[in-house]
Amino acid sequence: MNTKRFSELRKKMTPEQRAKSEARAKLVSLHISLIELQNTLGIPQ
Asked: What's the pLDDT band for 37 if we cut at 50, 70, 90?
């Protein structure tokens, strides 16, 4: 299997694609944080 480093893949992305990827990563991180907070507070999802 031919694997590539993530940094090499990012170099090929357009600035718009990189911005979209970063925004999506932040959104996922916030979602995970929200789930962890809900679990800590005992709030059902």
From this structure: very high
